[in-house]
Amino acid sequence: MAPTRGNEADVPHADGAASAGVRWPPMTRRIDEARAAVAAERACVATERDAFEAFDRRVAALATVAASTTPPLLSDPQRSGQSLERVRTAYEETVMSVPHYEAEYGDTVAESLAAEFGEDLAAALVGGTALTADFRDAVRAAAAAARREREEFLTVLDREDTSLARTAADLSEVRSDLEALDDPPLSDRSFDDLRALWESVRDVEARIEGIGMRRQETIRGYRKELPGVPTDLVEYLYADLSVTHPVLAAVATLGDETRRARRRVERRLASTA
């Protein structure tokens, strides 16, 4: 999703209530950038999920050999090993052939297999001699687990995008309500009007604080949901952005503007009393 490119709103009068002297930043710009990052990550994860599914189909089609204790002198290890070579080739041509693989991982077949399937299964695939039925089942089970892991992460990414969209809408609404408080100018208001305006601005502040608290709860939920992931989800997703917590940054920006607006009203109240 492309970032919003709307013009920043100039404040009409120096003595306006909510935003006098302030040039408003686009509240949702950082969130739009975050949504674009989520969409890019989602595309990569979906491609990997599909790649593991394709790998599984190719492994399922491979012939297996019976487990045997026949001495190597009476067997054909080269022919048996060809089935494992086909497994590795299938892995390279599916999982390791996704467009972003080199930039994101850039590892060898052995390293990738170990990261996805575990050290033992990877060692057997790289150094083994035959693809038995049980071995093939183990490989397919590992591929299915990798695919499920991507599917679960896609669910998390979808939830994050929903959270971003909701927060962007809420911040835009709050900002509109705050801007609406600018009319009439402070100098044209009575003491009682200023008092009512102050209460309205405080209500806006409370709404902004609520949006920030809800976002913190969402982040804590991700940490509980992904306990085995060493990197914080939002820091991982937004590492390349100007801020690693774009939603909280947007909330803080609007919160600062609202606090300044409240102080202007308070100064006017003090001079009017």
From TrEMBL:
Annotated region (Disordered), positions in chain: 1-25
Alphabetized Pfam families for the sequence: DUF7260 (PF23921)
Domain DUF7260, residue spans: 30-262
Name of the protein in question: DUF7260 domain-containing protein
Classification of source organism: Archaea, Methanobacteriati, Methanobacteriota, Stenosarchaea group, Halobacteria
